[in-house]
UniProtKB/TrEMBL annotation:
Coiled coil: none annotated. It comes from Spirulina subsalsa FACHB-351. The beta subunit is responsible for the synthesis of L-tryptophan from indole and L-serine. Tetramer of two alpha and two beta chains. This is Tryptophan synthase beta chain. Belongs to the TrpB family. The modification N6-(pyridoxal phosphate)lysine is found at K112. Its EC number is 4.2.1.20.
Length: 453
C-alpha cells in the first residue's frame, strides 16, 4: 500500500532531547558579558532564567532527559504524524519524494509548545510566579499562555505592535488562557518609552519586545524571562520533532537527502534538522540542509556573522550570530515569527561551518507555495511555514529539472487558521515584495558593538 502517513504510538515518544553541542565539529563561540566582554557565567544569567534551563544552555551532554510531567503533556498531541505528500508530488510532476512533519496538531497549532511546556515546568519547579516573553506572530505567546495555565504561572507577553494589530485572534487566544498581552513598544517600560520617544509610530520588532520583557523580568525576584527561539535550550527542546521523524523514516523504509526548515531564530529548523545532523557529523549519511528565510529579513543570507546584542536596548549578553544589527526593524510582513534581526547561535555556527545552506524567498512566492500545498494536501500553512513549503517545492522542481529522484523532508511548523487576514491580503494583491538592498543592510550593521574576540 502507498502509505500517506507514518505514525508512532505514545510509548514511542522520545525520552530525551538531543543536544547537538555534544557533537559539534567545532565548539560554539562563547556568549560574552557586554560589560567585561568575558564569557558569561551561570550566575550572570540567573536573574533571567530558571537554573535547570541554564544548565541545559551550557550543557554538552548528548542526551537531556525529558521530565515525566512534560512527556505527559506532550502525549496530548505527540508523536506528530510524518506525511508523504503524494498529491503534491503529483501536482508538481516531480520524481522527488516529499515528506513533511506536521506540527499543527498541538494546542497552539504550531511547534512552539515543544519548548513552552518544559520552560514553564522548570520555572514552576523553582518557585517562579510570573514569566515574561515577547512574541511576533503570536504562536510562541499562545504556547506559553497555555503552558502558564498548566503550571499555574502568570504570563506577560509583549507582542510586536504590527502583529498585535494584524492578528487579533492570536491575541484573543492568549487572553483566553489568562495571559496579559501588551503591544510593543509600550509605555510600560523604559525601553519602550525610549523607542516611542524616538519613533512614535514604531511598528515594533522582536528585538524591542525582548528588551521590554527582559527589563520587567530583571526587576522582579518572582519573575523570569522566557523565549521561543534563538537560545540553545530552546532549540534543544524542539529536537523531539526530528527524533520522531528518524523513527518514522524507519517505518517508511526511506531516509531524507534534503531537509528544509524555515528560520527566524532557528527553533523550527533545529527541531527537524539537528537530530539528523548527528548522522552527517559521523559520516554515516550525506544530507543537504537548507534554512529558508524571508528576503525582507535576510539574516543568514545578507547578515554578518558577528557578536551582537539579542535585543534593541542592548540589555542582553553579546551573542555570536548572523545578524542584521540590533537596531534593525524589518517591514511588517505577515510571517511575524521570522522578523528577527539575529539567528540562533547554533544555526549561525553551522551555516558558518558550511553544514547548512541558507536561502531567502520573497513573501509573495511563499504565499503562492502555501496555496499550492493547501490545494494538494488540504492543510493551509502558517505564513512562516510557507517559507519551508517554498523551499521544499523549489528542491522538488530542481529534481524534476535534473531528472533525479531525491527524498525531501520539511517541517510544517504550524497551520494558518489564525492568519487568514494574511491570505485575504495576498489574494487581494495587497502584499508587496520587500527585498533589502546591500546599502540598507550595511546601514543596519553599522551599529554593531566592537568586540575583541
Amino acid at each position: 500500500m502507498d502509505s500517506v502517513k507514518y505514525l508512532l504510538n505514545e510509548n514511542q515518544l522520545p525520552t530525551a532531547w538531543y543536544n547537538i553541542q555534544a557533537d559539534l565539529p567545532q565548539p560554539l563561540p562563547a556568549v560574552l558579558h557586554p560589560g567585561t566582554q568575558q564569557p558569561v557565567t551561570f550566575e550572570d544569567m540567573r536573574p533571567l532564567f530558571a537554573d535547570a534551563l541554564l544548565e541545559q544552555e551550557f550543557s554538552t551532554e548528548r542526551w537531556i532527559p525529558i521530565p515525566d510531567p512534560v512527556r505527559d503533556i506532550y502525549r496530548q498531541w505527540r508523536p506528530t504524524p510524518l506525511y508523504r505528500a503524494r498529491r503534491l508530488e503529483k501536482a508538481l510532476d516531480t520524481p522527488a519524494k516529499i515528506y513533511y512533519k506536521y506540527e499543527g496538531l498541538s494546542p497552539a497549532g504550531s511547534h512552539k509548545p515543544n519548548t513552552a511546556f518544559p520552560q514553564a515546568y522548570y520555572n514552576a519547579q523553582q518557585g517562579v510566579k510570573r514569566l515574561t516573553t515577547e512574541t511576533g506572530a503570536g504562536q510562541w505567546g499562545s504556547s506559553l499562555a497555555i503552558a502558564g495555565v498548566m503550571f499555574n504561572l502568570e504570563i506577560l507577553v509583549y507582542m510586536v505592535k504590527v502583529s498585535y494589530q494584524q492578528k487579533p485572534y492570536r491575541r484573543a487566544l492568549m487572553e483566553a488562557y489568562n495571559a496579559r498581552v501588551v503591544a510593543s513598544p509600550s509605555t510600560e517600560t523604559a525601553a519602550g518609552r525610549q523607542i516611542l520617544a524616538q519613533s512614535p509610530d514604531s511598528s515594533g520588532s522582536l528585538g524591542i519586545a525582548i528588551s521590554e520583557a527582559v527589563e520587567v523580568a530583571a526587576q522582579a525576584e518572582d519573575t523570569k524571562y522566557t523565549l521561543g527561539s534563538v537560545l540553545n535550550h530552546v532549540l534543544l527542546h524542539q529536537t523531539v520533532i526530528g527524533l520522531e521523524a528518524i523513527a518514522q523514516f524507519d517505518l517508511a523504509q526511506d531516509y531524507p537527502d534534503i531537509i528544509v526548515g524555515c528560520t527566524g531564530g532557528g527553533s523550527n529548523f533545529a527541531g527537524i534538522a539537528f537530530p539528523f545532523m548527528q548522522h552527517t557529523f559521523s559520516g554515516d549519511k550525506t544530507i543537504e540542509f537548507i534554512a529558508v528565510e524571508p528576503v525582507s529579513c535576510p539574516t543568514l543570507t545578507q547578515g554578518k556573522y558577528a557578536y551582537d546584542f539579542g535585543d534593541t536596548a542592548q540589555m542582553t549578553p553579546l551573542i555570536k550570530m548572523h545578524t542584521l544589527g540590533h537596531s534593525f526593524v524589518p517591514p511588517g510582513i505577515h510571517a511575524g515569527g521570522l522578523r528577527y534581526h539575529g539567528m540562533g547561535p547554533l544555526v549561525s555556527h553551522l551555516v558558518n561551518l558550511d553544514y547548512v545552506k541558507p536561502l531567502a524567498y520573497d513573501q509573495l512566492d511563499c504565499f503562492a507555495a502555501g496555496l499550492t500545498f493547501a490545494k494538494a494536501e488540504g492543510i493551509l500553512p502558517a505564513p512562516e511555514a510557507n517559507h519551508a513549503v517554498q523551499g521544499a517545492i523549489a528542491q522538488a522542481l530542481r529534481c524534476k529539472a535534473e531528472g533525479v529522484s531525491k527524498t525531501i523532508l520539511f517541517n510544517l511548523c504550524g497551520h494558518g487558521h489564525f492568519d487568514m487576514q494574511a491570505y485575504i491580503d495576498y489574494q487581494a494583491g495587497k502584499l508587496q515584495t520587500s527585498e533589502y538592498s546591500p546599502e540598507e543592510v550595511a546601514m543596519a550593521l553599522a551599529g554593531l558593538p566592537s568586540v575583541n574576540h
